[in-house]
Amino acid sequence: MKYAVVGFLFFCVLHVHFRGKVRLPFMRQLFDHSSFMAPINLFMQLFSRVPAQPFLEAERWDELAPLQQNWQVIRAEAVNLLALQKIKAAEQNNDAGFNSFFKTGWKRFYLKWYGAGHPSAERLCPQTVALLRGIPSVKAAMFAELPPGAKLNPHRDPYAGSLRYHLGLMTPNDDRCFIEVDGQRHSWRDGQSVVFDETFIHWAVNGSESNRVILFCDIERPMRFRWAQAINRWLGRTLMTAASSPNETGDQTGVISKLFTISYVMGQYRRRYKAWNKTAYQVTKAGLIIGLAALIIWL
Predict the structure, then answer these.
(1) Which of 104, 185, 221, 239 has the fewest CB atoms within 10 Å distance of its CB?
(2) How many CA atoms lie within 13 Å of 188's alpha carbon, on the beta-carbon side?
(3) pLDDT, tens digit, for every residue of 163-212?
(4) Contact 108, 143 (CB under 8 A)
(5) 8 A C-beta contact, residue 194 and residue 66
(6) Are 67 and 141 contacting, i.e. CB atoms less than 8 angstroms apart?
(7) Could you give the dihedral angle defined by the CA atoms of residues 98, 101, 105 and 111, in that order, rounded to the nearest 10 degrees?
């Protein structure tokens, strides 16, 4: 039985790895967060009602039209946040989902995050929050800033229960500022939207001299059956709410983000050990992986 379980888990990881044209190095994929979610994502992709392709037609989601129709209203609130310096990196390493993005200057301000509460968004962005509240399929939303010279390295998001929606608010309107999903590029434009599957390998860069600010949303993946949609909704509400991160004091911090703060501190010691002796670090890492694999087989 245990071999069947291990075999199924490995099959799920292979499914993630070979999905799409662009792939991560296999060893990186093996220990990537998307591999730990692979069994859930296999379910989501198997029963998905949308085609397995990097970009999807935004017009498919009629309920999102109010966002594009009111993009200037939304932009005005984003511009105000920029002036107040509220679009920023997490200050206490308590953003499990996006912590690695902050290294190159990427910043965010949460407007909505599944079941978590963000009173700061309701206070500072009432019109945008009201628009989002009227669209139940939008499970999460934020303003995301990518300053000149910033780059997000190739990655795939861990949870396949959603699709990604971007609406250009204040962009360079320049092809040097783009996102590439499974080898296909899209350059943001003011007032224009795009939907893509974030479980394909994607990366982004702002090679222009101007800032880029977008409305960034997770929309619920449409499923073929009502029972599958109900499972997706429950998992999103349970798992993703636990990864919530605050804009400021008073906003909700999920348990995963709280635990991430602890792991971040431990990671600092890991990086110091690696800097002290890289060979010893690699031997220790290999020993832990082999030990974990042996424990799983033994159990």
Answers:
(1) 185
(2) 29
(3) 999 999 999 999 999 999 999 999 999 999 999 999 999 999 999 999 99
(4) yes
(5) no
(6) no
(7) -30
Going by the DSSP 8-state scheme, the letter that residue 237 receives in this structure is I
pLDDT digits (tens, 9 = 90+) for 41-62: 999 999 999 999 999 998 899 9
Count other C-beta atoms under 10 Å from residue 205's C-beta: 17
Looking at the chain, how many residues does it have? 299
Cβ neighbours of 27 (radius 10 Å) = 9
Structure token pair of residue 209: 């001299």
Number of separate domains in the chain: 1
In a domain, 84, yes or no: yes
Beta bridge partners, 178, equal: 187, 205
CA distance 191 to 168: 5
Report residue 103 as tokens: 């290294």
CATH number of the CATH domain containing 180: 2.60.120.330
Nearest to 171 by CA among 152, 185, 186, 189: 189
Say if 96 falls within a structural domain: yes
Is 281 among the domain residues? no
Q: How big is the chain by its Cα radius of gyration, in Å? A: 20
Beta bridge partners of 60: none
Q: pTM of the predicted model, to two decimals?
A: 0.88
- Which residue is it, tokens 């994502």? 41
Sequence-distant (6+) residues with CB within 8 A of 228 are 43, 47
Q: How far apart are CA 279 and CA 207, in angstroms?
A: 36
Task: Please say whether the beta carbons of 39 and 8 come within 8 A.
Answer: yes
